[in-house]
Specification:
By secondary structure, the protein is α/β, with parallel strands linked by helices. The protein has two domains: 199 residues, Rossmann fold; 131 residues, Glycogen Phosphorylase B (Rossmann fold). The protein is 33% helix and 17% strand. The protein has twelve helices and 14 strands. The strands form two sheets. It has a seven-stranded parallel beta sheet with strand order 3-2-1-4-5-6-7, with helices on one face. The protein has a seven-stranded mixed beta sheet with strand order 10-11-9-8-12-13-14. The longest helix is centred in the first third of the chain and has 21 residues.
Length: 363
């Protein structure tokens, strides 16, 4: 690697924490090698990364804020917002073009932020979704959706996919096959976590619930858990996925210990102390669990075709189990004999960040 310090602009999508959290190991590696990192983000992603990297330079980068349906069909709802989204993509591009000049940027990394592209400097699009899943009734639109995705990804110089090139493939048909016309690199799963040197042996929680994702579905699942936990004798813990709320944990229904959010150390400790884990089927959450060599029951967010696919695909692989939100039943999770396969070692590729060093050396 060269010793020339580069200035890298990092732009995560701010739809939740997943796109920001999986950039943590990349940002840390850039810092370790002496590069200057500037982060342009908004909302929860901005707050999370500020807490993770308090000494870095941050720029508020307002973006498209989607709304989500309380029903089971998100795709049609999102299609209705497409004109507004396209307008925001163009505004994002103009914002980035200005930043490139003002901050003397050498390279740009965009995690799923379509509008954060430039031709002034090398730019990379990071995604695990080359192929956005369509529901069965709209399957005929799949080629058109693929072309839409390709249209925006081709604006970047390269595409990095956080999945393995060979088996075991964690994202399945979402990340394969690659587009022949795109400079694509499969960089392996990304997570800020690793298996602790001395894991906690005392399993004092029967179930740990890891909530995440958009409203109102996050709260709808939370209310189901609150209601069913009141009728259970099991000792339970919940991470609500609300980084803006109070740090103070509290008891709910006398047997459910609740955190609004938790530091990385607390998160790892709770995972180690729990017999069973229940989580959303978001890809970043799945990568974190795989990095910790933990399995879970996955509850896909209703109407999110990506999560529905991942939950089904990974349960077919027998790496995870899945249950639909409408069918959520705490007794089933507690009493199912064929629990999720706890042996998830070997899926997470720890080969390093050679792809990142090669890119920064080329700037």
């Amino acid at each position: 690697m060269t010793n020339i310090r580069k200035t890298i602009l990092v732009c995560p999508l701010d739809w939740g924490l997943g796109h920001a959290s999986r950039l943590v190991p990349i940002i840390k590696h850039l810092q370790k090698n002496g590069h200057r990192v500037i982060i342009a983000a908004d909302r929860a992603a901005l707050s999370f990364l500020k807490h993770s990297f308090p000494k870095l330079e941050f720029i508020r980068f307002p973006g498209f804020v989607p709304s989500y349906s309380a029903g089971n069909s998100q795709v049609l709802h999102m299609l209705g917002m497409l004109p507004k989204a396209l307008w925001h993509f163009n505004r994002d591009h103009q914002f980035v073009e200005k930043l490139i000049k003002e901050k003397k940027i050498d390279g740009l990394l965009s995690d799923n932020r379509f509008g954060a592209w430039t031709k002034q400097v090398p730019s990379v699009f990071i995604t695990h979704q080359l192929h956005i899943r369509m529901p069965k009734v709209l399957k005929f639109m799949q080629p058109l959706v693929d072309q839409f995705n390709l249209h925006f990804i081709k604006r970047f110089n390269a595409c990095w996919i956080p999945d393995n090139l060979e088996q075991p493939k964690l994202a399945g048909d979402l990340s394969f096959p690659e587009f022949p016309s795109v400079n694509t690199t499969y960089i392996g799963p990304l997570s800020r976590f690793s298996v602790p040197a001395t894991p906690t042996k005392n399993k004092d929680f029967d179930v740990l619930f890891l909530l995440s994702g958009p409203e109102p579905q996050r709260s709808l699942l939370e209310q189901k858990i609150f209601a069913q936990s009141a009728e259970s004798a099991a000792k339970l813990c919940m991470l609500r996925g609300l980084p803006h709320e109070s740090d103070k944990a509290f008891w709910k229904n006398k047997n459910l210990f609740v955190y609004n959010h938790a530091s990385d150390d607390v998160f790892i400790d709770l995972v180690s102390r729990s017999k069973i884990i229940v989580a959303r089927a978001g890809y970043s959450s799945i990568m974190d669990l795989i990095a910790l060599e933990k399995s879970a029951w996955l509850i896909p967010t209703p109407g999110q075709t990506e999560q529905l696919y991942l939950a089904h695909y990974l349960s077919q692989k027998k790496w995870f189990k899945s249950i639909q939100q409408d069918n959520f039943n705490l007794d089933i999770i507690l009493n199912t004999n064929d629990s999720p396969n706890s042996n998830c070692s070997g899926i997470y590729d720890k080969s390093g960040f050679h792809f990142l060093d090669k890119w920064t050396d080329s700037l």
